[in-house]
């Protein structure tokens, strides 16, 4: 894949677990980013994830002077409620035909059992059903493979176990899913990421990065043939990870030449501290309302 460089990239943080200090923005569990790409005088707005609830996202969009109707496409990184819960409410505001990109297993039944049963998939009353989203204009584009969205912009597709770096092959979350009525471990194979080629290098965006953020960055470079990665954005799900895995992650991203790290959500305080220590001023904590320009 020969990738064009986009002319401008702006990433708005519409939802995050942290609202920032003395901030008018609302926080909530989960993430949602508005990815605004300009290329050849064309501007496209991609909504990446919808956090847990639509209302805080719509409130923050008003503060940022963003009209939901200007969203051109939606990407759901994976099926967890803190990334899909706001979909139905946001689709009602968009109110037009729009593609919704996700992995083909986005509708799987997945849940935790410790300390008690908790369904973690798309919440039906907030995220909506497949049919409800279609009635509101959503066209589901469900694929395990990477998809080219526009010049310089592509999804990563599924990160298979064979594609993962060794220390990321074990998932950092204990979930189950149903397959033909049987319980099997859920390794969150349905998580996909987004990559954009800018003049500074690749920008890689993840939701929770359950497949491993290093493996996701590696997949982005493999698909694009571009080794220069400027920034990595999103949750890294290291909140329950052992120190060794966190340090391996920090070291690997540094070795890959990643210049900037923007993270929060499920990354965890310990991991954020280790990233801050290694990347210094090139580490920035995500918060609702944060805008990143590349």
CATH structural fold name: Metallo-beta-lactamase, Chain A
Write down the overall mean pLDDT.
97
Head-to-tail CA distance between termini: 22 Å
Under the CATH scheme, which architecture would be assigned? Answer: 4-Layer Sandwich
Helix-strand string: EEEHEHHEEEHEEEEEEEHEHEHEE
Low-confidence stretches: none
**Can you summarize the main beta sheet?**
7 strands, mixed
CATH class: Alpha Beta
State which percent range the strand residues make up: 25-35%
Amount of helix: 10-25%
Question: Per the principal axes of the C-alpha atoms, what is the gross shape?
Answer: globular
Mind explaining what this structure looks like?
Strand 11 (175-179) and strand 12 form a beta hairpin. This protein has helices at residues 54-63, 81-84, 87-94, 130-135, 213-224, 243-255, 269-279, and strands at 8-15, 32-39, 42-48, 73-75, 98-102, 110-112, 118-119, 138-142, 148-150, 153-155, 175-179, 182-186, 194-198, 201-206, 229-235, 260-264, 283-285, 291-293. Helix content is 22%, strand content 29%. The strands form three sheets. The chain has a seven-stranded mixed beta sheet. A seven-stranded mixed beta sheet has the order 9-10-13-14-15-16-17, with helices on one face. Strands 7-6-11-12 form a four-stranded antiparallel beta sheet, with no helix packed on it. It starts with 7 loop residues before the first strand and ends with a strand. It has 294 residues and is an alpha/beta fold. It is globular and about 45 Å long. It has seven helices and 18 strands. It has a single domain, classed as Metallo-beta-lactamase, Chain A, CATH 3.60.15.10.
């Amino acid at each position: 894949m020969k990738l064009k460089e986009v002319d401008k990239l702006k990433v708005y943080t519409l939802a995050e677990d942290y609202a920032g200090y003395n901030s008018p923005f609302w926080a909530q569990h989960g993430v949602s980013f508005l990815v605004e790409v300009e290329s050849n005088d064309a501007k496209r707005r991609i909504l990446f994830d919808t956090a847990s609830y639509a209302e805080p996202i719509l409130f923050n969009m008003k503060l940022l002077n963003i009209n939901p109707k200007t969203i051109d496409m939606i990407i759901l990184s994976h099926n967890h409620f803190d990334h899909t819960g706001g979909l139905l409410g946001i689709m009602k505001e968009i109110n037009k035909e729009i593609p919704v990109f996700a992995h083909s297993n986005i509708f799987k039944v997945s849940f935790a059992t410790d300390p008690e049963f908790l369904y973690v998939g798309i919440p039906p009353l907030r995220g909506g059903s497949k049919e409800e989203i279609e009635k509101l204009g959503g066209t589901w584009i469900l694929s395990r493979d990477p998809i080219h969205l526009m010049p310089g912009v592509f999804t990563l597709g599924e990160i298979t176990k064979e594609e993962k770096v060794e220390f990321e092959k074990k998932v950092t979350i204990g979930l189950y899913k149903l397959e033909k009525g049987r319980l099997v471990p859920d390794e969150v194979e349905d998580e996909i990421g987004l990559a954009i080629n800018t003049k500074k290098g690749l920008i890689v965006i993840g939701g929770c990065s359950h497949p491993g953020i290093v493996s996701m960055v590696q997949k982005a470079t493999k698909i694009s043939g571009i080794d220069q990665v400027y920034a990595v954005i999103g949750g890294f799900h290291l909140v329950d990870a052992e120190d060794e895995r966190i340090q391996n992650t920090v070291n690997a991203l540094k070795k890959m030449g990643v210049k900037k790290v923007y993270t929060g959500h499920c990354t965890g305080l310990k991991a954020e501290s280790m990233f801050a220590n290694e990347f210094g001023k090139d580490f920035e904590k995500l918060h609702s309302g944060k805008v990143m320009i590349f």
